[in-house]
């Protein structure tokens, strides 16, 4: 699985224009994604989410592997009217690798 993590990390470069892995880093276009495993949806401190994400947060929806993989297929299908673009990763192996990287438990 070390290979997958490396691949996921490399693919995550494309997400870094909007997402940091450092919770202290504010002011990016998207919320930080540190410690995403088990995190409540829409709960990064200091980020003003779309109404769709705020509704999910109110319901205490949790990020796990299954949810993240499905989100990356089509973000707008999961959280209608959400603000994330680009809309998804088409390649299944790419999604699995990014999911494994973000869910590695740190
Ligand atoms: C152009 C900017 C941009 C890029 C590139 C981007 N995102 Fe996002 N992402 C966002 C925004 C904005 C949100 C917040 C969505 C909302 O509030 O509706 C978000 C939300 C998220 C969330 C939910 C976080 C939470 O706190 O609940 C995850 C997970 C995520 N993105 C993963 C990714 C991954 C993985 C990639 C790369 C494949 C990526 N994003 C690329 C802008 C981006």
TrEMBL record:
Keyword 4Fe-4S assigned: no
Domain of life: Bacteria
Originating species: Bosea vaviloviae
Record key words, sorted: Electron transport, Heme, Iron, Metal-binding, Transport
InterPro entries: Cyt_c-like_dom (IPR009056), Cyt_c-like_dom_sf (IPR036909), Cyt_c_1A/1B (IPR002327)
Annotated Gene3D superfamilies: Cytochrome c-like domain
Taxonomic lineage from the root: Bacteria, Pseudomonadati, Pseudomonadota, Alphaproteobacteria, Hyphomicrobiales
GO molecular function: electron transfer activity; heme binding; metal ion binding
Pfam families: Cytochrom_C
Descriptive protein name: Cytochrome c domain-containing protein
Domain Cytochrome c residue range list: 3-106
